[in-house]
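A brief tutorial aside. Many learners find it easier to grasp structure tokens once they have seen a single protein encoded end to end. The record that follows does exactly this for ATP-binding cassette domain-containing protein. Read the sequence first, then the structure, and try to relate runs of similar tokens to stretches of the chain.
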Amino acid sequence: MTGTVVETRGLTRRFGDKTAVDHVDLRIAPGEIYGFLGPNGSGKTTLMRMMTGLLTPSEGSATVLGTDLPGNAEPLKQAIGYMTQNFSHYRDLTVRENLGFVGNIYGVPRRDLSARIDELLVTYDLVGQADQRVGGMSGGQRQKMALAAAVLHRPKLLFLDEPTSAVDPETRRNFWEQLFDLVDEGASIIVSTHFMDEAERCHRIAILERGVKRIDGAPPALMRDLPAQVVEVTGRDMRGAKARLDPAPEVLSTAQIGARLRVLLRPDLDRPEAVVRTILGAREDVSAEQVDPNLEDVFVAATTPELAA
């Protein structure tokens, strides 16, 4: 597969004096899971809504599956699926009734709809809940039903807005296995998340902060090319060690993870672990070791003004 499924050019959205998305350029290839990683308020949902044609940009444009936006959203609806951040289906209808309703909206032929619903009930392990009202199901079951509804009409491109924010780790893991199954079947997926482990599962990601795309690329490449060095510190009194490291000009950030500190330092330093030991006063009860970056380090570096400039 060649070309792009989504390309945006200077995509911008303002709400009054607030800029929610600020001149974002993207190129998303077919057959991949592309992730938007960022905290709440970083512009992930607004960006998705513009790419689905649900929200008109203040500036810029996008091409989604060959359709130019804004202005031509109607023909795009049959080709995309959209799973919103908040559950948006009818809680007083059963799973089967909700899926039937969605199928009718998308114009799935009646002769095919029943078989398609039965197929999805099996795929997403909802056979036992088929005739249960959705309002009485668990969050994980509702999430599976929402995904089934989003793919019912076999869209080429699927938008998933923080789809696992309210489910347990096992459900999240199973959900991602189902996403890779969809990619194997030919779909392309755009997903937003604030979970680092989910972002690392994506083929490529864009890190968003305050509506700005700070960096994008494949997670392994972003970690390899991190413009910082990482040192892990272990020992006693990690809170005291953090208090000494934070003000040091060589240190970009520190974060405590259990009984250890993860320290990001400037990329131009020789022997960064020795620099850390010096800052800490050569304490014998503390060890410092340079380690490989992870995606959280990439996120911190991308959103650190000194490095993001």
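Self-check: The radius of gyration is 23 Å. If you spotted this yourself, you are ready for the next section.
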